[in-house]
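name: query_chain
kind: protein
chains: 1
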Amino acid sequence: MDIFYSLLFKLLPLYLIIFFGYLSGKYLRINKDVVAIVVIYVISPIVFFNAAATTPISLGSLMLPVATLLICCAICLLFSFIGGLFWKDATRNILAFIAPEANTGYFGLPVALLVLPKPLVEVYIIAILGILVYESTLGFFIAARGKHTHKESVTKLFKLPVIYAVMLGFFANIVGMQFGSAYVTMINYVKIVYVILGMMMIGLGLSGIKTFAFDGLFVGLSFLAKFVVWPVFVLLVIFLDNAFLHIFDATMHRVLLLISLMPVAANTVAYATMLKIHPEKVAVAVVLSTVFALVYVPLMVSFFLR
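structure:
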């Protein structure tokens, strides 16, 4: 239990940053869109470039984002079916969209920095690329309920700067580009900024929600997807890999397990708001899952990732 309490107390400052973000949005009227632009178009590409440029290239490291993408798609389709048993409106669509959406960046990266060896943190960043691709492809289609064309979705995907940052990073990796101590120092600072602004964005996003609509069934199913089905799917992948595929090593299995523990992604509130599909319900799911993760993540890490 020492690991549990250690990680629990290390996570508490992250929740304080969320609270500061909420206060900043509520009373200082800080524009979350400006912060999001900085994070998405400046900070995130640097973080992903560094991961691609410094992670040893192997079949496993290249297949990790493929694995997370396939898991996301499978969970999305599963909860589209499950949601259809309870709702006939767009609630089904937004549930299917958020079911695999995990806060692997703003929340997950600081957790990864706390519990993973430094080389594995870069592997973790590469792995979560699959979730970003899901968000801009199948997830976007499901959430938009067919209101957007395939061309619009593909255009959205190729507007993601992290895609090009990863490509450039892999190129730098392949040609053997060397980085000096000044670069390493800069990257460490950028990661800190990424974590702080990312956690603040959660609070900023929540400050913009006028009303909170609690739907017990919706929250329950989103919890089922994030905290039960995601880990089960990852354990299934690990079993198949150990028994037949032999693509990933044990350290990569740890990365996948950590990804499976993350709460509902904060940016799902922005998508739900943009598409006008129950943003209040999504906001409640994000808040409650993030609060639950404060205890759930340290507990699971202490049992499975020691």
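note: The two ends are 10 Å apart (CA to CA).
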